Fold:
Amino acid sequence: MKEQHPSGLSEGGGEQSKERFSSYGFILAAIGSAVGLGNMWKFPYITGLYGGAAFFLLFTICLLLVGLPVLLAELAVGRGGRGNPSTSLIRLSGSKLWGRLGFITILGPFVILSFYAVVAGWTMHYAVLSFTGKLFESGDYTGLFTNFIGSWLPVFWQFIVMLLTGFIIMLGVSAGIERFNKILIPGLVILLLVLVVRALTLEGAGEGVAFFLRPDFSKLTAESALVALGHAFFSLSLGMGAMITYGAYVDKRQSLGGATLAIGLGDLLYAFLAGLIIFPTTFVFDLEASQGPGLVFVALPAAFSAMPLGAFFGGLFFVLLAFAALTSAVSLLEVPVAFVREVLGWSRPFAVVLVSAACFLIGVPSALSLGGDGSGLNFGGKSLFDWVDFICSNIVLPLSGLIITLFVGYAWKGAAEEAGLTVWWFRVWMFMIRFVAPVLVLLVFLYSAGLISF
Structure:
């Protein structure tokens, strides 16, 4: 008989606790969760705005000093609790109050996926348009994008994304999530390198590379520090429950410290390569790197149309984005699926079907709010899509991260044993988790929510 905790949850965590990643598969899956669409349009914008290489250096420091300690905390909670974020907190603390707080980290990724799948669908649609040559027929890239997001086609592609994501999750941890990432992450690296070579060999690319790699420390401010910290935090998928859930599938023999470092370096490398693609391309074709989605779906197609084999390289670019989006979507869906499997006792296939369907239906209004039949779903100057994005990114995720840092720093007594660090490194880690990370995450939360400014 399994030992029972005060919460009534068993030590083993049920059938879910039997699922395991291999060491290599876990690191690839975690890197897949970390890399995403944001590094292709948000990272170039904030890097250019806040000093190029100076900001990239600041981002790296924030990732190493704050992002990695919080990442290790989430992985340790997941492996220690052997469950989803909510039940892991209950098992490790014996208090249902922490479980209720942990539920925020389950609701967040569910809602995020509802609109993230919409954007992932855009990338798939544009990959098809590029490879078929239809993307470059009219030359009116603004009109093409506006007409597309104003139609029902985004809902179709959103459905395809959820179907693919659900299928992967349904296969399980090793046969689904791990195998999928073992295929897509190497593919992602190959696509990145091909596109980097293409960008660097464009005539005049050196100016863009110089802008990216030449530091301008005069642009570094308190605001840029918070932006760098926020991007480091979110680029590692922290506060989303994904790393806690993945941590539940990690073998006890796996070094969490080594895995944390590998994941951080993988995320950093992806951001760096993304910069080597975007900046040379934007400089050569005189584009603004601060356009967000407009850069990817309007400006860059115009650039691809002007280069040799543009349809081919444009197609590769959007396939790259689709790969990055899918690896993140898989980790987001696994969080609520793991929760309902544990709490409600559902089988994996049944949980996947129900959760995927609910996520798709909730995301349809967001998909339609950008135009077309859903054009009325706008209030306060933002579309429903933008509001959901704002609330999740600027309120839910920082709050979730704050909960985990406070739990590990002050409530959980077994953190040292689970993290597996030497005495000196454990003291450094605990200092960051107790005194540094909560303060900085709170500042990011207040700044992102518009409650403080500089």
Notes: The radius of gyration is 21 Å. The mean pLDDT is 89.
